[in-house]
Design goal:
Elements: H1 2-11, E1 13-18, E2 29-34, E3 38-42, E4 57-63, E5 66-71, H2 73-76, E6 89-94, E7 107-112, E8 117-120, E9 126-127, E10 139-145, E11 148-153, H3 155-159
Amino acid sequence: MAKDVLAATTYRRVIVFPALSHKFKGKQVHFLFSALKVADILQELLVQPVPLSPPFLEGIAEWRDRILPVISLEQCLGLQVKSLRQPPRSMVVRIAGTGGGNANGLHGVLRVAPNIQMLSLPIECTPVSSGWMSHEHLIRGVYEWKRGFLVVVHMENILKGEKLADK
C-alpha cells in the first residue's frame, strides 16, 4: 500500500529549473522533467571534454560506473547560453529501456542551474503554438506560465542524437 502511495506521489511530481540562457521573447525559459526521469542531482561532477565534439556535447562524465554524455539543452535548442554566477549542478536523466539488452534505458547528464524546484502537477499554464523554436523534433511541448516558458524536451531524441548536429 505504501509503495502505491509513493509511486502515485512521485508520478505527479516534476522537476523544474531555469535554462542557462538569456530570456527568449522577453521571458525566462524553464525546463520541466518528470521526477521519474531524474536519476540523480549532483553538486559536482567531473566533466571531461571531448575533442571535436559538437557544441551541445559539453563532454563525458562517469556516474555509477557508467560513462555518460554531458549535454547542454540550451545548445541543443539553439538558445544563447549565458554565464552563471554560481556553478551549475549536474542532473542525470534517463529514458525507458530501448532494447538491445539495455534494460535500464539510456542515461545522460544535463548541466542545470542550481535553483532546481520540485513541483506538483497540475501546473497552471497555457500551451504555446507550434513554431516556437526551429528544433521542434527535440521538444514535446512548450507552455506559458507565470514565470515564463516551460519547455518539455524530447529527451529520447536528444540522447539518441536525433538531428542534433544538423541544426
